[in-house]
Amino acid sequence: MISIYPRKKLDHSFRNIFSALSFVLTPRLNENRILHDIENLWPKENVIVGLSVRTIFDTILTQQKFEDGSEVVMSGITIPDMVEIVEAHGLKIVPVDLDMDSLQVNRDAITSALSKKTVMVVAAHLFGSRMDMTPIYDALYERPDILIVEDCAQAFDGIGKYTKQSRTDISMFSFGSIKSVTTLGCAIGFAKEPNFQRQIKDSLAKYDRVSNTQFLSKVLKYFMLKFLENPFIYGFFISLCQLMKVDYDNVIISSIRMVKNAGLLETIRKAPPRAQLKYLLHRLSNMNDDHFSKRKEAGDYVSTRLKRSNVHGFRNDTHSYWLFPIRTPKRSILVKALCDAGFDATFTSTQLISINPTDGGMAPENCEQYMSETIYLPVYESLPIAKLEILISVVNDNT
After folding, report:
1. pLDDT digits (tens, 9 = 90+) for 36-95
2. Structural domain that includes position 104
3. Each residue of 284-294: b (16+ CB within 10 Å) or e?
4. Quick one: pLDDT at residue 258?
5. What is the pTM of this model?
6. Cα 319 to Cα 280: distance, rounded to the nearest angstrom
7. How many domains does the chain have?
8. Pairing of β 170-174 and β 187-191
9. What distances in angstroms separate CA 51 from CA 207, 272, 317, 339, 366, one per listed residue?
């Protein structure tokens, strides 16, 4: 048995978790005051708070009442739930390819994807980076009727930092269990227009609330999972799973993904627990200015030392390495070599997929090829430089 660095470092401390527990035990939390205080963190923005990015996105589509068969142009990589939500509203998906070196869409590709039926463009910012929205704005110059949505679930980088670009109608940021500054759920949206903000907030306010008891259960689960970040404990966990002939990969994936006790829409059409809202306010209000800098330093250190330019987004200067994906045709070989060296890399634990068009056909070529050859490296600030050097050497020797 060896010490193994886990595939992902959860972005919270034991101290954060104890704060969440204290909020669960706090009686009579004032929801309106909490929401007011969250919104005041961005006094110049039209802020929306919901259970998840999925919840806000579904509410937007419910509000818009687009005609059945209308088309939604989406950048070519997202999670299956976003696809399911679009199609549940009777809409069709038209995916657009990405340049995986810059994680950027091309204006001509957007223009080619548009039709008279296009009602929305959704741009997903990937892996902790952001794309420049200018090509999308240019493509839609003569189509002001099309709603522009930024899916920033993976792109939060702090208070006073990025919210959305100028012509975007709404952006959405996630604070889910494995996201940056996690509060084990919740999302924040930034709407361009106050009327649009009010419509969405009014709809969200009608949902039944998830109970504090359910939130307590999640907090306790992630309290236990936090112990697995210790490389020795994580190595022991993997060895125990192997001894018991249990697929530890499946155990990890099932423990962190949103559980659907009902259908997706029924699951997401809820309001967050008051204790979780308080936790969201607490975490956002107590962020250090350098919260992301050390993770970015570790990511840059590895990215610049890999022999091949195979890091997704290596030409994107906004990359904060929420995930560290690389491309290799030797995924299984590299994952095994990294595990033998004490690093739990993976190509199965993310939900990100290359999108297929609703009416059939191939997924965008670059997105499909890259996602079929993607693995995620455990690159984060708590790995010592000596360990990062070993990881770099293993990757260079096996790609």
Report:
1. 999 999 999 999 999 999 999 999 999 999 999 999 999 999 999 999 999 999 999 999
2. 14-204
3. beeeeeebbee
4. 54
5. 0.95
6. 24
7. 2
8. antiparallel
9. 10, 5, 30, 36, 32
Domain boundary among the residues 174, 204, 234 is at: 204
DSSP conformation class of 192:
S
CA atoms within 13 A on the CB side of 196: 20
- Residue entry with tokens 């950048």: 75
Per-residue buried b or exposed e for 322-361, using 16+ beta carbons within 10 Å of the residue's own CB:
bbbbbbbeebeebbebbbebbbbbbbebbebbbbbbbeee
d(CA 140, CA 146): 8
Nearest Cα to Cα of residue 31 among 21, 43, 39: 39
The string of pLDDT tens digits covering residues 264-285 is: 999 999 999 999 999 999 999 9
Structure tokens at 141: 């110059």
Report the CATH number at residue 199.
3.40.640.10
Shared domain check, 40 and 164: yes
What CATH code is carried by the domain that includes residue 350? 3.90.1150.10
Residue 256 lies in a domain: no
Q: Are residues 177 and 319 in the same domain?
A: no
